[in-house]
# Entry
Amino acid sequence: MSKVWFITGAGRGFGSEFAKSALERGDKVAATARNTAALDGLVTAHGDAVLPLQLDVTDRNAVFAAVEQAHQEFGRLDVVVNNAGYGLFGAVEEISESQLRDQLEVNLFGVFHVTQAVLPILREQGAGHIIQISTIGGVGAFPTLGGYHASKWALEGMTESLAQETAGFGIKVTLVEPGGYATDWAGSSATHADPQSQYEPLHTAMAEQRKNTAPGMVGDPVAAGQAILKLADAEQPPLRVFFGTMPTQLAPRLYQQRLKTWEQWKWLSVEANGAVPQQ
# Structure
């Protein structure tokens, strides 16, 4: 039985590959984009199996209307992929308040709007799978991406709670945490803060690091499109899953260091608890 997908940010990058993979195997897709012209290729190739929807995920009313239109068109929603988002580059001191608020509006509140819009439908069905596109940057943090990390760490916490709240309704929830991929995430789709001279050495070092990333650590978006099908078809999908090789190597090192630090400072943690009443 084919699935019905609702995918945000389907005009390019991951979203486009997710939609193509689903459509090519015979599924139906409600595909959203800020500019529906970006969806013309999908419509030409797959006709009525695609419902192109113009959508800015920061517009809550528009989100609810788009979800309702998709539900009316296809009769159900099986897989909801919150993919729309972008990167904000700049040291914490460099990014403006408006840039940070805009980042949160898209990467966090956009997901929040879509999630709240689909939940009544999935609850009534007694089934469905919400897939949130996070990042390895939702597990670890790197210089000059503090605003982006703020949005994704918030998404991770909200989604972990969501998974526990909706399990009893038959709704599955997964966080996909990709590493570096050959998409436009750091290109024209990104926002860059005005640089300050004090951070020039850091920006130079980060640019050099990205330039020297080993080819095997940069993922293929087409492969990610195929991988999400297996995730969507899983009977018991994970709460978290990495996409790409780089996260599988980086995350263990991050957690080993955290565990080591927590153990080294356990004495202070216990001391901060105060006296334990005698039984």
